[in-house]
Amino acid sequence: GQQLNQSPQSMFIQEGEDVSMNCTSSSIFNTWLWYKQDPGEGPVLLIALYKAGELTSNGRLTAQFGITRKDSFLNISASIPSDVGIYFCAGPERTSGTYKYIFGTGTRLKVLA
Amino acid sequence: SQTIHQWPATLVQPVGSPLSLECTVEGTSNPNLYWYRQAAGRGLQLLFYSVGIGQISSEVPQNLSASRPQDRQFILSSKKLLLSDSGFYLCAWSVGMVQYFGPGTRLTVT
C-alpha cells in the first residue's frame, strides 16, 4: 500500500532552536495533515493544507504543501519543552464513499532545556 | 463544536476474555468513523472504518470486529482477546478530508 516517508525519525534539539521535518509520498495528495501526539494521548490536528504551494501557520508552527503535491514540510520556531512528542503527517486517500488516511511513520521530537 | 469520547481510558483484561470499546461523537451528523490501533512507539494501523449506521469496512483480518449501531456511536469488540491485541486504540471521525482523533484507550491483555 501507499506509504508516507517522514524524516527525520527522531531529533534532539535545544530549547529555542528551530525544527524542520518533512514528509514525502510516491503519489499525489490533495490534502496534507499534520498531527502531534503526546504520550498516552490521541493525535491532535495541528495544520491542514489544501492547495499546492500553500503555506499555513499556527502560532510557532508553519507547514507547507509542496508544489509537486508529493511532499509537505513542518517547521517549529523557537522550540519549547512542551513541543516534545511525535509529529505525524497524513494524507487522505479516496475510497468507497469516504477517505482512508495514510500516515507517516512519525518524527519523535525531544527538546533539551 | 465537535467532540469525540472514548471509554474506558484504560483497560486490563485477561487472555480469552471479551472486549468492548466505545466511541461517541458529538456535535456533528453522519460522520465517517474509524478505529486504529497503535503499538508502543509505532505508527497508526487502520482497523475498521464506517460511512454510516451498520456499514463497516475491515482493513485487517484479525480477532476484532466493529459495529455502528447509531450514527455517532462506534464500537470495537472481541469475543476472545489475545495477548497480541494489547495496544493503544484510537477512534477518529472525519467530515470532508480532515480527520480528528479521540483520546484513546490503553488496552493491556495479560
What features would you describe in this structure?
The complex is a heterodimer of chains A (113) and B (110). Chain A is mostly beta strands and 113 residues long. Chain A is 0% helix and 58% strand. Chain A has no helices and eleven strands. In chain A, a hairpin with a 2-residue loop joins strand 6 and strand 7 (61-65). Chain B is mostly beta strands and 110 residues long. In chain B, the strands form two sheets. In chain B, strands 2, 4, 5, 6, 9, 10 and 11 form a seven-stranded mixed beta sheet that branches. A four-stranded antiparallel beta sheet of chain B has the order 1-3-8-7, with no helix packed on it. In chain B, a hairpin with a 5-residue loop joins strand 4 (32-38) and strand 5 (44-52). Chain B is globular and about 35 Å long.
Features:
heterodimer, A: 113 residues, mainly beta, six-stranded mixed beta sheet, 0% helix, 58% strand, B: 110 residues, seven-stranded mixed beta sheet, four-stranded antiparallel beta sheet, 11 strands
Q: Main β-sheet of chain A: number of strands, strand sense, barrel status?
A: 6 strands, mixed
One letter per element, helices H and strands E, the order of chain A comes to EEEEEEEEEEE
Order of helices and strands of chain B: EEEEEEEEEEE
Distance between the termini of chain A: 40 Å
- Helical fraction of chain B: under 10%
Number of helices of chain A: 0
Radius of gyration of chain A: 14 Å
Strand content of chain B: over 45%
